[in-house]
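Lab meeting, action items carried over

1. Structure of the two-component assembly. Owner: GW. Status: complete.
Input record:
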Amino acid sequence: MDAVETYGLTRLYAAHRGIEGATLRLARGEVFGFLGPNGSGKSTLLGVLATRLGPRAGSFRILGHDGAREPAAIRRLIGYLPEGTAHWGTLSGFQNAWFFARAYGLGQAEARARLEGFFTWAGLWDQRGAPVETYSYGMKRKLALLEALVHLPPVLLLDEPTLGLDYASEVALRARLAELAAAGTTVLIATNDVALAQAVCHRVAFLHRGRVAETGRPGDFLAALGGRVEIALTLTQAVDPALLRGLPGVEAVTFQEGGPLVVAMDRPGLLADVVSAVTAGGGRIAHVRVREPDLGDAFIRVTGESMAGGR
Amino acid sequence: MLPSTLWQKELAETFASKRSLAIKLAFPLALAGPVIIASPPPAVTAGAVAFLVLFVGVFGSAVGLAQERREGIWQRVMLTPHSPGRLLAEVVLANAAVDLLQLSPVFAIFLLRFRPSTPWLVAVLVGGVAATLVAGLLGVLLASAVEGSGEVHLYAAVLVFALAGLSGLFFPLRAENAWQVAVARASPFTYLAQALLGAEGGPALFGPLDSALSLGLLSAGLLGVALLAAPRLLRLRD
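Predicted assembly:
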């Protein structure tokens, strides 16, 4: 039995936004990412799976429970991090998290032990007694995240989980998600964060204008890009671009502010050759930036539009 | 206090700030205290106290819950495994408990001022609890039916004044106006007003037993219907 199955799932809004005809199957222990620009239907899809929104067509099952007929059973099995933050502001972070831990059936001793661990993990232990209205946005998101995790649900639905998190927290989250997946938790992530998706997702679906444009493994999408890299040079002394165009593997050299942008097939020694060519030609390098292709580039290849929503 | 249920959460919020608790307690007292002490005609005192119960109950639950809906907390609560019936019962009972706490000084002054006989004392106490419960229930239903804080305030005001009018809180009910009494009998707040009137020694239309029983049955019936309809009443809006 798959952890999550959707068949032609459709939930559209009047403004032609939402999700249409989504058919997916997710295995237990799989980390699956929904990638797409704002308005592509990611949050709607997660909202339907969380039983927050009703589908207008199609169906879905979570661990064998039908979404339309058994929403209560599904709610017991999921942890859901919605968009934004929603807490009782006058209560402390610990009081808020305690309520949800108990609502999901944890006993008092278990809830206390789990929350102590999760508050420490999230770096909120010292602020656990402060009213949530005094928390920063990032702290509120961390609180919402640990509230979704604390009952150790077999299926996790996370909407933009890295939004508002500092780098250390993001790294800790990636490690935690990998641990959970290894333990059999199925994780669905709706995100614009391609670095997160590349780091933790076993598979991703590109959502484009409410439809699943393509589904696959991040590595396969990246491989399909052909191993190209971009080398952006900032020069204090310009050089003849013909020196760079003649290098093996270089496909294009364009100019941007500060210097040339080299697009080339990646190969051992490419960067050294580029730097040597520039210095041999009398150029002076102030800064070099190498960017490997990511899922954002793969999204453009598949949909013809960028993750920012433009062509 | 670590809240495991909605009613515990409500109490934790109420006692989280001493200042807001003091304001909550002082507000009804400041409105009704002078009326009770000034000894106007009995119908005016009874109408004022019953109106206060209606006002505090409806607005107290409707405004708070509408805010929770707007902020998304209510959606999160609805996505927990608890049944809609349990959630509705907890919200209504929690709001009623807080409202009764707010109103208890008013009832205390009223009972100390008029020192009613035991039957009327029981009628006032039963009536106070039941009417607060019903007012809170109406507020919860209102908040779950309309969008936005402004709308909630508007419709709550309309509801409160309409019910107050029907219940004879603005003008005394007269036995000779049979249709008026018949309509008023459908409102729980009529019985509270009549119990208060009787407790003051005024010309109540119903006896203490009639008031207490009618109000108790009416409120239990309304709560029962609301609990049965909870899955529809509290469904997540999409």
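2. GW to write a short summary for the group page. Key points so far: The longest helix of chain B spans residues 84-114. The mean pLDDT of chain B is 89.
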